[in-house]
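Notes continue from the previous slide.

Worked example: a multi-chain complex. Inputs as given:
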Amino acid sequence: QGSAEAGADKIATCVACHGEDGKATADIYPNLSGQSATYLESSLKAYRDGQRSGGMSAVMTPQATNLSDQDISDIAAYYSQQ
Amino acid sequence: QGSAEAGADKIATCVACHGEDGKATADIYPNLSGQSATYLESSLKAYRDGQRSGGMSAVMTPQATNLSDQDISDIAAYYSQQ
């Protein structure tokens, strides 16, 4: 189970592109606000597990590689509540 | 250049999961409303070009395979304006 409170302490690198409020800082990035935790977990794990190339994967895969399942649940909880 | 008006005629299959208004019909799907056309094009092309596995790719890749660059621009324009 993800904790949005714990997630808030794990988004230091995420915010550069996705903002603290889940609003993309440039058009090439997606907004995360309003997405479900289920979807956010699914896509973040797909990046981490090397299942996405192209698109923004050159940025996302190295970042996601360092995340545990719990980290991903926490970050997903945080952004789903923005 | 994408046309939202043309895109409105090309979303017959998209709406089942993403809604006519870009609101996901279930938690496993992302909302598309409010995303930039740039991002929507990038991710749809990544699915079409076989650069995404895992996640929802089993659903998305076969759908996206049938889309031309113009189709993708039009659909991206449509959903970015929802």
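Summary box: The mean pLDDT of chain A is 96. Chain A touches chain B through 24 residues (CB under 8 Å).
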